[in-house]
C-alpha cells in the first residue's frame, strides 16, 4: 500500500480529469449497453401501448430471464404452430402451457373455429384477453374444472430444466389434455418425459432467438410424421 494512503497529513487532491468517488466515468461499452437497454425498454413500452389499443400482431415482450424466458425463433414457432393446428383439426382446442411464442404463431394462423389458450405466469400476456389464463407451475391444478381434458393438443415448455418443474408441468398437461401432447424441453429431461407423459423425442429440434447452451428436444406422445421429417 502506498504512503499516500498511510500518511494522514497528506491531503493531495485528485488531479483534474482523474477518476474519483465523485467522478465515475462509464466505459464506452457500458454506455452502449445502457443505451441498448433503454432503447429496448422504449420499444417494449410502445408495443405494450399498441397492444392496449388492440394491435396485438407485433406484441412480443422482451425475455425476462428471471422467469427463465427464452423465445423460440420464427422457424420453431411456425413448425410447432402448424403441428398443433394439424393435430387439433378445424374445430379443435389448443393449450399452450408456458409457451407464449407458440401461442402467438398459432393465433396468427388459426381460423375462427379454433380455440387456443395461453397458460402463462407472466401477466404481460394478459394483453391476449380471454385467451390468457394465469398459470403457476408451482400450483399445477389451480385451474377451472371446465378445462379438464378440454384440449385436443397441449403444447408445453416448462420454464426450468428441473425434475420438479417438469413433474408439476406434467400434472397440468395431463389435466388439460384429451390425448395429444407436444413437449419442448431439454435433452436431459428425456427419461423423465417418457416416464411422466409417455413422450418420446422427435427429429425436429426447437431453436431459440438467443442461442442456449443446453440441447433442446421436441417430444410427443403420438407419432408425428411432420415433426419427424424436420431437421
From TrEMBL:
Enzyme class at the top of the EC tree: transferase
Location(s) in or outside the cell: Cytoplasm
Region (Disordered): 1-23
A single GO BP: methylation
Keywords associated with the record: Cytoplasm, Methyltransferase, Transferase
Source domain of life: Eukaryota
E.C. no: 2.1.1.-
GO CC, any one term: cytoplasm
Family classification: Belongs to the class I-like SAM-binding methyltransferase superfamily. EFM5 family.
The protein, known as: Protein-lysine N-methyltransferase ORF140848
Amino acid at each position: 500500500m502506498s504512503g499516500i494512503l498511510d500518511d494522514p497529513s497528506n491531503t493531495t487532491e485528485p488531479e483534474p480529469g482523474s477518476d474519483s468517488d465523485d467522478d465515475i466515468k462509464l466505459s464506452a461499452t457500458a454506455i452502449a449497453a445502457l443505451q441498448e437497454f433503454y432503447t429496448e425498454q422504449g420499444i417494449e413500452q410502445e408495443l405494450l401501448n399498441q397492444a392496449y389499443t388492440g394491435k396485438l400482431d407485433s406484441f412480443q415482450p422482451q425475455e425476462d430471464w428471471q422467469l427463465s424466458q427464452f423465445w423460440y425463433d420464427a422457424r420453431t414457432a411456425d413448425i410447432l404452430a402448424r403441428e398443433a393446428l394439424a393435430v387439433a383439426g378445424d374445430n379443435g382446442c389448443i393449450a399452450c402451457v408456458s409457451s407464449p411464442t407458440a401461442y402467438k404463431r398459432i393465433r396468427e394462423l388459426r381460423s375462427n373455429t379454433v380455440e387456443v389458450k395461453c397458460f402463462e405466469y407472466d401477466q404481460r400476456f394478459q394483453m391476449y384477453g380471454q385467451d390468457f389464463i394465469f398459470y403457476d407451475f408451482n400450483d399445477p391444478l389451480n385451474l377451472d374444472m371446465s378445462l379438464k381434458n378440454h384440449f385436443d393438443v397441449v403444447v408445453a415448455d416448462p420454464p426450468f430444466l428441473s425434475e420438479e418443474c417438469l413433474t408439476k408441468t406434467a400434472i397440468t398437461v395431463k389435466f388439460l389434455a384429451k390425448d395429444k401432447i407436444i413437449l419442448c424441453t431439454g435433452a436431459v429431461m428425456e427419461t423423465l418425459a417418457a416416464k411422466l407423459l409417455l413422450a418420446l423425442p422427435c427429429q425436429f429440434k426447437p431453436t431459440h432467438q438467443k442461442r442456449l447452451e443446453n440441447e433442446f428436444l421436441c417430444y410427443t406422445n403420438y407419432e408425428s410424421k411432420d415433426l419427424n421429417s424436420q431437421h
